[in-house]
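We store amino acids, tokens; thus:
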Amino acid sequence: MHIPKQFKQEKGTELLELMREYHFATLVTHSTSGMEANHLPISLSWQEDKLYLHAHIAKINSLWQFVAESSEVLVVFNGPNCYISPNHYPTKQQTGKAVPTWNYVTVHVKGSISFIHDAAWIYQALEKLTSEHESELDNPWAMSDAPAPYIDKMLPAIVGIEIAVTSMTGQWKLSQNQPTINQLGVIQGLSVSKKQNDKTVAAMVQAQLQA
């Protein structure tokens, strides 16, 4: 991923926060059958100060058969993004020199992949992923709520995925290349939008400006 210097995000805490918040990610793999992308909910796990990504696929998905163990993969976490109109820039009114662009936040993670067939490991990974998403609900569902024989029957139809992270790269393209007056114009323009993504990006541009 090409990252201009002003857009590079090097704060590990910011990268991890985005990965946790926007955890439905794209897993990109390469094998003898070519390139493939799978879209998966991802959970983060620390083991002895090393970061791992955990996910799962249906066993009928042939990914685990064609991608070699320990091969390098790419996982893309996309955060909020939106269109930026030149009309948001006050300087455009003065010179007319402005073109549309797109603001976005993304994290690219590289690592080595392993496929897990152990039922206990898969159960634990599913339990962790579920509890993360159910925790904010008034009446959270738990794996133990389902009959044990029912879960035991489903586990063999799932393959676990573990990715040992080797690098993380983040790009926060939030109008940093514009003068302050235009960044403030972007914040104002996006804040009054009816689109939630626009409002979210506006808040991120403001936070970036104040950092």
User: Anything to note?
Assistant: The two ends are 24 Å apart (CA to CA). Strands lie at 8-9, 24-31, 34-41, 43-47, 50-58, 72-84, 101-116, 158-173. DSSP finds seven helices and eight strands in the chain. The chain has one domain: 5-87+101-177.
